[in-house]
């Protein structure tokens, strides 16, 4: 028995050391002391026309000027960027980034809480700032992401985060941006309807100063029932999409569809209800044997043609580490009908608009956060490199574990 205890203790110590050793080595960026000017680059504001040989000026985390004739203040840090391109930081609109590290170990999976009804769960407080997935993701230009819990009827509340910072407070752009909800059957809608009814009664009792036992789950549903906080429902089949839209309309809820593979089949309903779609995983196979091979590739263009608001995600719950491939999902959509400008918009400004944070991020405009990437080409192309990046004005370390291993073994075989 004593031998077993020592063995178990050794395993725990070894596992703890492994987890600590796996933490990313990058140090979060520090705010520059004065203004920074990126000069001479081709600027892609997304919200406006491309600016050739332009300048982006930012100070204390905010963009202060954009254009061709921007006066650079004396003493400003100047980044000479002739021949380069400046884009807004790319925005992944749905992921589990920062909530899972080793998917085979329950202790490092913070995306799925016990129970099925957890509206009080908040993803942003569970983020691991030292996750190795984060530096790999941002090194490819993805600087913003929605991270969300999953599993059950109401998994909890998603948050918009920026992919750099010492703590979850540093990383959070907007907490509680949406409520993840699972509507997979009529039974789910019945249970949700009951929960919403309880939440409305709870809110009414509090408003009228009726003495009532505090319930943090019902409390968390407050902004959902008033329409301030949207619900995100994962649905691919048209039947599931129609069920979600009808339920949201009946309950007067604000809805976002995640997935949307068959959304064009119920386009009129989505358009009438003004329900946007987060397209998940452009790189996926057809859902039916009679579907064309490019069904997922052309989805963005088909939604655009039908007037449905959308953005593009690389979300795949089984491949949480591949958020870095977001620009290539958009690139494939561009290769199958979407213009390059609209593809870039689908991973920058469109997710910011759909999720209600476009006043801060998503485009290069005066007054917005200086969350930018400097590239040597088109970020939708695999051979393009993100050479520099800033998150809310702070320079970002673009190294990661893979790059360090590459450099290590380059030296070994010199």
UniProtKB/TrEMBL annotation:
<protein>
    <submittedName>
        <fullName>Imidazolonepropionase</fullName>
    </submittedName>
</protein>
<dbReference type="InterPro" id="IPR032466">
    <property type="entry name" value="Metal_Hydrolase"/>
</dbReference>
<dbReference type="InterPro" id="IPR011059">
    <property type="entry name" value="Metal-dep_hydrolase_composite"/>
</dbReference>
<dbReference type="GO" id="GO:0016810">
    <property type="term" value="F:hydrolase activity, acting on carbon-nitrogen (but not peptide) bonds"/>
</dbReference>
<feature type="domain" description="Amidohydrolase-related">
    <location>
        <begin position="284"/>
        <end position="387"/>
    </location>
</feature>
<dbReference type="Pfam" id="PF01979">
    <property type="entry name" value="Amidohydro_1"/>
</dbReference>
<dbReference type="InterPro" id="IPR051781">
    <property type="entry name" value="Metallo-dep_Hydrolase"/>
</dbReference>
<feature type="signal peptide">
    <location>
        <begin position="1"/>
        <end position="21"/>
    </location>
</feature>
<dbReference type="InterPro" id="IPR006680">
    <property type="entry name" value="Amidohydro-rel"/>
</dbReference>
<keyword id="KW-0732">Signal</keyword>
């Amino acid at each position: 028995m004593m031998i077993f205890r020592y063995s178990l203790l050794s395993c725990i110590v070894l596992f703890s050391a492994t987890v600590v050793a796996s933490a990313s080595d990058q140090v979060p960026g520090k705010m520059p002391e004065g203004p920074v000017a990126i000069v001479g680059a081709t600027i892609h504001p997304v919200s406006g026309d491309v600016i050739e040989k332009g300048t982006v000026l930012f100070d204390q985390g905010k963009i202060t000027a954009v254009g061709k004739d921007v006066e650079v203040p004396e003493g400003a840090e100047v980044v000479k960027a002739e021949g380069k391109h400046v884009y807004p930081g790319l925005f992944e609109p749905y992921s589990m980034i920062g909530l899972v590290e080793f998917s085979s170990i329950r202790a490092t999976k913070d995306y799925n809480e016990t129970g099925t009804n957890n509206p009080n769960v908040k993803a942003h407080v569970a983020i691991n700032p030292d996750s190795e997935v984060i530096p790999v993701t941002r090194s490819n230009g993805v600087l913003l992401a929605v991270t969300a819990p999953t599993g059950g009827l109401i998994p909890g509340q998603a948050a918009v985060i920026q992919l750099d910072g010492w703590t979850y407070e540093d990383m959070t752009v907007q907490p509680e941006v949406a409520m993840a909800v699972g509507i997979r059957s009529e039974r789910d809608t019945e249970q949700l309807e009951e929960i919403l009814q309880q939440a409305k009664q709870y809110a009414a009792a509090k408003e009228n100063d009726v003495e009532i036992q505090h319930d943090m789950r019902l409390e968390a549903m407050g902004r959902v029932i008033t329409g301030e906080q949207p619900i995100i429902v994962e649905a691919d089949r048209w039947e599931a999409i129609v069920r979600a839209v009808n339920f949201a309309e009946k309950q007067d809820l604000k809805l976002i569809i995640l997935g949307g593979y068959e959304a064009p089949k119920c386009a009129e309903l989505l358009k009438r209800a003004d329900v946007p779609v987060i397209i998940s995983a452009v790189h996926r196979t057809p859902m039916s044997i009679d579907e064309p091979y490019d069904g997922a590739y052309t989805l963005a263009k088909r939604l655009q043609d039908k007037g449905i608001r959308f953005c593009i995600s690389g979300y795949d719950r089984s491949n949480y580490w591949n958020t870095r491939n977001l620009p290539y999902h958009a690139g494939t959509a561009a290769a199958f009908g979407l213009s390059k400008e609209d593809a870039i918009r689908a991973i920058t400004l469109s997710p910011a608009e759909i999720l209600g944070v476009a006043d801060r991020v998503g485009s290069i405009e005066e007054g917005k956060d200086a969350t930018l990437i400097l590239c040597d080409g088109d970020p939708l192309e695999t051979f393009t490199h993100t050479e520099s990046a800033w998150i809310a004005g702070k320079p970002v370390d673009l190294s990661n574990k893979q790059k360090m291993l590459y450099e290590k073994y380059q030296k070994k075989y010199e």
